[in-house]
Structure formats: structure tokens, C-alpha cells
UniProtKB/TrEMBL annotation:
SUPFAM superfamilies found in the cross-reference section: Periplasmic binding protein-like II (SSF53850), Winged helix' DNA-binding domain (SSF46785)
Entry-linked InterPro entries: LysR-type_TF_proteobact-type, LysR_HTH_N, LysR_subst-bd, WH-like_DNA-bd_sf, WH_DNA-bd_sf
Entries under Pfam families matching the protein: HTH_1, LysR_substrate
UniProt xrefs under CDD domains: PBP2_GcdR_TrpI_HvrB_AmpR_like
PROSITE patterns in alphabetical order: HTH_LYSR
Name of the molecule in the record: LysR family transcriptional regulator
Protein source organism: Aureimonas glaciei
The organism's place on the tree of life at top rank: Bacteria
Length: 298
């Protein structure tokens, strides 16, 4: 099939200019002059028959026509880059994952060995930073993010719903007044009491949360750290019961009330849609979705 297309070099220039919103930065990335970038864009606009950018004093902005062309160009170049890299064997050996610390610590690290047994030719490189990586530019194959799964350009699979309920050690649970109901928690030390989950859960339980509620005032930031405080009997932590099902089953943690609340920030497996056919991405996706399906659904 004959395709009428501009030269690939012109498409690369346009995609870089659209991504940077600036001809000078695009030129620096491509090792060209700013004048050469402007010339290539002009040729492309003449070929399309419509302006692709609105020129401004310090930058440029895509027109409506330019936005559609930029999206298609970026996806096409991503697919080409992936195909060539895989053909050369450059992407077969290492799977790079960016995973939120909580998910990595309380779920992934206990199971990743089974993935590596299934795929001995893949070395897993794991980054547990809570920073949200830009999969379009970072050297990362797959990210596990918390949110609503609506990120542009990404294919996302929901892994774990956002759920939360108070948990504590059996020793601390013994101090809970059975007659007080959920309000009895206010007489125990709360871990990260200013975190929004506490206010949401108490409101759902019909308990007024007074200002300056006592507790461990610092924000520990991640559920895995907060769970350690709870396991040590030092406070009541607000945790996702799916993550700590084993501790609950073993009796190391106690969930004193049946009330489990929902949060709009679920955990998602994400990768660039343009790379959805990459074998290593498909392998990890299939493995983790199978593992999730076999786990608890609290």
C-alpha cells in the first residue's frame, strides 16, 4: 500500500516542537538550529495546508489541527522506536518499574520472585519513589500509580481499590472500650491523625472528630510505615485491608469495626498505549493481573 507521508525527519521535528512547545528546545534535542526547525515546520504547514502552531514571543502553541497531528505523530514514533529497539534486542532483558512505596513494600516484593521464575530472562529494575514519573520521557516501562486511571496516552488496569479502615495490634485493641463504638478510637493514639482518611472514616461512622484530635502528630506518609507503628502496638493506623490481609488473618493486626470506606484513588498498572504490544509489558501485565485476581477482594 502506497502511503503519502512527509519525510520522517520532518515528522520528528514537528513532534519535538509540539512536545516542547518551543522551537529552540526542539532544535537542541535534535541537534539542529532553530532556523532549521522553523523551516521544517513551515514545509509541513504548507503540505497540510493549515497552520500547526500559533507563534508567540517566547514559545509556540499547537492549533486544533496541530494537536491532532501531534498526538498521532507521537504515538507513531513511539511505536517505531519500540519496534526497532525490540528488533535489536535492547528491551528484552530489563523490565523497569516505577512503583509507589506502599504497593512495593506490602504487596509486590513478596510476589515478584514468582514473576522472575516465570520469566528468567527478564531482570526487574524497581524504583519505589512516590514521584509520578512521566512515562513519555522516563526510562520506565510500567508504573503503578494511585488515582482515577484517566491519564492521557496510557493504558491503565485497576489493581487495588482505594479502601481504608482502622487497624491496630491486639494489645492496643484490648484497651478499646466496647461500649463506646467507633468514638472509642479517639481515646487511643492515632497514627497520622491529620490525614484525610481519618476524617472521612469518622464521618461515615457518625463520629464528630474534634479539632486537635490527639495522636502521633507526624505524617508518616506511607501505609507500610504506619502499619509498622500499629504492629508495634504504638497506635491505630488507617490502612487498606487488602494490603494487610495476611496480618489480619494471622491476628497480628485487628480490624475492630466492619466499616470500610472507599477512596477515589485506586492503584493502577499503567504503561504507554503505544507500547502495549511490547512482550515484556504484556508478560508483567498478565502476571500481575493474575496475581491480583487470586488475592483478597475486601
Amino acid at each position: 500500500m502506497f502511503r503519502t507521508l512527509p519525510p520522517l525527519a520532518t515528522i520528528r521535528v514537528f513532534e519535538a516542537a509540539a512536545r516542547h512547545g518551543n522551537f529552540t528546545r526542539a532544535a537542541a534535542e535534535l541537534g539542529m538550529t532553530q532556523a532549521s526547525v522553523s523551516y521544517q515546520i513551515k514545509i509541513l504547514e504548507e503540505r497540510v495546508g493549515s497552520p500547526l502552531f500559533v507563534r508567540r514571543p517566547r514559545d509556540v502553541a499547537l492549533t486544533g489541527v496541530g494537536e491532532g497531528l501531534a498526538r498521532a505523530s507521537g504515538e507513531a514514533l513511539d511505536r517505531l522506536a519500540t519496534a526497532f529497539a525490540e528488533a535489536k534486542g535492547q528491551t528484552a532483558g530489563v523490565l523497569s518499574l516505577s512503583v509507589f512505596q506502599t504497593f512495593a513494600s506490602v504487596w509486590l516484593v513478596e510476589r515478584i520472585g514468582s514473576f522472575q521464575v516465570e520469566h528468567p530472562g527478564l531482570a526487574v529494575r524497581l524504583d519505589t519513589s512516590d514521584a509520578v514519573v512521566d512515562l513519555a520521557h522516563a526510562d520506565v516501562d510500567i508504573a503503578i500509580r494511585a488515582g482515577q486511571g484517566d491519564w492521557a496516552g496510557l493504558t491503565c488496569h485497576r489493581l487495588v481499590p482505594g479502601r481504608f479502615t482502622p487497624m491496630m495490634s491486639p494489645t492496643l485493641a484490648a484497651r478499646l472500650d466496647p461500649e463506646a463504638g467507633p468514638a472509642g478510637l479517639l481515646h487511643l493514639p492515632l497514627v497520622s491523625p491529620d490525614y484525610r482518611w481519618w476524617a472521612l472514616w469518622f464521618a461515615a461512622a457518625g463520629v464528630h472528630l474534634p479539632a486537635g484530635t490527639g495522636g502521633i502528630g507526624s505524617d508518616l506518609g506511607t501505609q507500610d510505615l504506619e502499619a509498622r507503628v500499629a504492629l508495634a502496638g504504638q497506635g491505630v493506623a488507617m490502612l487498606n485491608p487488602i494490603f494487610f490481609a495476611a496480618e489480619l488473618a494471622a491476628g497480628r493486626l485487628v480490624q475492630p469495626f466492619d466499616l470500610v470506606c472507599a477512596d477515589s484513588h485506586d492503584y493502577w498498572l499503567c504503561y504507554r498505549t503505544a507500547r502495549r504490544t511490547a512482550p515484556k509489558i504484556q508478560a508483567f501485565r498478565d502476571w500481575i493481573l493474575r496475581e491480583i485476581a487470586a488475592g483478597p477482594k475486601t
